[in-house]
Amino acid sequence: IGRCLAEQQLLRDRSLALSPDVNTPFKSLSDAMRRLVRYHTLQDHKPEEGSKTMKTWDTRYSKLCDYLVKKKRCYMQRFCKMQ
């Protein structure tokens, strides 16, 4: 549920950042912060191609994929035995 709520908030923030209220002035510092913080969803955080960060990400992603494939095979074997 937590991840789903986080994804919903990101989508809401992105939507509000792409169609901001440009006519209403900021009422306070907290109002400005609340309305401007939504622009974080538009930042590009992709690491540069060939960088150490990218290689680390690729390695982790590859390990995760291998793990998930093995887990799927295990579940499929269990399922086949049950039939």
Automatic annotation (TrEMBL):
Top-level taxonomic group: Eukaryota
GO biological process, one term: positive regulation of DNA-templated transcription
Entry protein name: GLTSCR protein conserved domain-containing protein
InterPro entries linked to this entry: Chromatin_remod/trans_coact, GSCR1_dom
Residue stretches making up the GLTSCR protein conserved domain: 13-81
Cellular compartments per GO CC: SWI/SNF complex
